[in-house]
Amino acid sequence: MYYTYTHSTPTGEIFYVGKGHDDRAYSYRDRGWAWRAAVAQAKGILIQIEAEWNTEEEAFEREKFLIKHHKSLGAKLVNLTEGGLGPLGYKQSEARRAYQSKLMVGYVHKIVTCPHCETSGGETSMRRWHFDKCTGGKTHKARATIGGKRVFLGNYATKEKALQVGFNYYMSRNMSIPKEFVRHASACMKQKESHHG
Q1: 100, 121, 152: which is the final residue of a domain?
Q2: The pTM is what?
Q3: DSSP H helical segments within 73-158, as ranges?
Q4: For the chain, which terminus, N or C, has the lower number of CB atoms within 10 Å?
Q5: Phi, psi dihedral angles at 90 (to 5 degrees)
């Protein structure tokens, strides 16, 4: 069972409209700073269950209606969105922007260097996007085909090195080198000679 509810000051001025189930209306957990400030300023809170609903979708629709309705009556709601599922209508307050801006004044992002390829960058982005995917500056893959299955032999800095690893792999197992592999190696060598010519 879902329901819609309101929070008011002790004098009856509604400052928050919500949707919930179980004991959500009576919980102080996971409330925004604007809600907490309103409760502290009012020195108390009145909680009223507005209506009960069979589905969450119905409760969301009612929540949106109530927010729009009370705002039209001049209520100063601390809701950060227009209600419903998702952040529809979310606008960060000027007070919140000023607070976050103050926190960032003089802040210097920690710069870290990848131990594999020596790329440097901000710690957060490097750890999140780079470290786990870094190939150490070695972008050429060495592969071999055994029994119809591809075998990965590692990443290498040059195409020639990757090809040599492939050759060595076949030779160490006394296997014939596939024609496709030879053609690829031949084309690579011709390209290299043209650059040096």
Answers
A1: 100
A2: 0.45
A3: 94-104, 123-125
A4: C
A5: -65, 130
Whether 3 contacts 23, CB under 8 Å? no
Q: pLDDT (tens digit, 9 = 90+) per residue, 52-111?
A: 999 999 999 999 999 999 999 999 999 888 877 654 444 556 776 777 677 767 666 788
3-state secondary structure 38-88: HHHHHCCCEEEEEEEECCHHHHHHHHHHHHHHHHHCCCCCCCCCCCCCCCC
In the block, tokens 């040059």 appear at 158
Q: How far apart, in Å, are the Cα atoms of 142 and each of 87, 117, 156, 186, 192?
A: 47, 19, 7, 16, 18
Q: Which two tokens stand for residue 44?
A: 């108390």
Where in the sequence is the domain holding 170, given as residue range(s)? 140-196
